[in-house]
Structure formats: C-alpha cells, structure tokens
Task: structure prediction
Amino acid sequence: MIGRAALGAMLLALALVACGEKAQTTASGPEKKADVPAWKGGNAAFNAPGWVASDQAAWEAQLRARAQAQNDYAAPK
Amino acid sequence: MARMKFICDAERCIECNGCVTACKAENDVPWGVNRRRVVTLNDGVSGERSISVACMHCSDAPCMAVCPVDCFYRTDEGVVLHDKDVCIGCGYCSYACPFGAPQFPSNGTFGLRGKMDKCTFCAGGPEVNGSEAENAKYGRNRLAEGKLPACAEMCSTKALLGGDGDVVADIFRTRVLNRGKGSEVWGWGTAYGKPAAGKGQAQPVEAKKS
Result:
C-alpha cells in the first residue's frame, strides 16, 4: 500500500515537472559587469603624452587641460 | 567634475563629416552603423545649418528607462554605457531615443539584427579598460588614456566640443560673446535661456579687441 502511494507520488511529481517555469526576472539573465573608472587608466602604451594614470583629480585636470585645445580663445602657452 | 557632454556649434559646422569618419576609424564601427551623424537643417536654403549628432548621454536617459534587461549603466562622469553581453538586441532603446543614437548592425544572409551599438563617448564598456575585448565590442577607451572623444578632438573647425560640461559650455559661451551675438543662435536659448525669459540671463557683449 505504502509502495503504491509512493509510486503514485513519484509519478505525479514527474508529471508536474513540465509545468515548471524558469524565472523571467533580470536576475535570471546575465549580470551587468561592473566597470572600472576611466581615471584608473587603461593601456598605458596609448596614454596621452606626458600623462600617467594616478588619481581621479589628476585625470580630471588632464581632461580639463586637454579640452582647452578646443578653445580658440585660450591664452597661448 | 561636471558631466561629460558634447555640444555642436551650428555656426561653425561645415558638414565635412570628419567627426563621423574619426568615430568610425577610431572605434572600428561595424558596416551600416554610424555612431555619429551630421544632420543638416534647411538643406539648400539660405542660412542652412548643420549639427553633428550622436548619443547625448542624457541625465535621465530614456534608453535606460525602457531596457527590459537593464543593460545600461551610467559612469560617475555621466557617460551612458551598456553591456553588450546583457543586451538582447530588442530595439526598445532605439524607439525611445529622440536622437536615433542606438544602432543595430545587420549580419548574415538574413540580415540578423545584432546587439545594440552606440556612441560611448570613447569610454569603452564594462570590459577591462584598454583590453582587446573592450576594443572589439565597444571601441577605443580614450578617456582611460587621458584623452577626449576622437570626434571632438578631430573637428577641423572646432565646431564639435566634447568634455567636461562646464568647460565646453565656457568655451562655447566665450566664442558666442566674441562674435558679438548670441541669443539668436540656434541652441543658445536651450543652453542659456531666452532673453525674454527673465533678467540676469547671459547677454552678448562687444568683443574686446586686443
């Protein structure tokens, strides 16, 4: 009797397996990778001349100085 | 630092498409995809103007809002980037973007639509900075090299400005004031407010002769 009940439960479980559904939330998909901040630098071989990746403040100063190359009215150095 | 921004000076753009070419070459952009385009307004009519348009790296980016797989992210400098390994190429971002920035490469016999591609402000993607994987998927990471986007730095007339929003806005403002005109220039009202909107707005002044 017990064996028959166990068999029945197993068959029922097997039959219901097909009713399962994979979660469709974003957590089930590939996760976004964390990015490394640009100020930490990349391939040093291609760095702007004279610039070496160090800290964020130095990187910001480098970009501000570089942006002045777009300024016709900047005082010539 | 403020946010990274582009601004195109319509009075200077000569529609040479140098920015488009620089972008394609620097980032090895796939065939059929233009991360940057030059749009001409009133083409052929006296007073026509051209502006260079790409992803504007919006503060409240609609592409980020509609992405069903949440593949977008924003860097500390305000650059909107995405992870191509998460993107499913559905195209929602393309419908949401008012600038037509998201592009989809067509590959194969049946023109299968690939993963979304767009301007990265030359900041690469989530792969290791300056790595081959980053270069292959997103193009060059010039920001990590201490440089600004290739399109802006290559602009022959310096019409397209790119960099820290405060810096490029100052450059543009100085330029307009030196021209002796400003408020009638296309885009000025959007950037600095219309003269009729109230007092205290920046007004054109006579350029100083040295």
About this structure: The two ends of chain A are 97 Å apart (CA to CA).
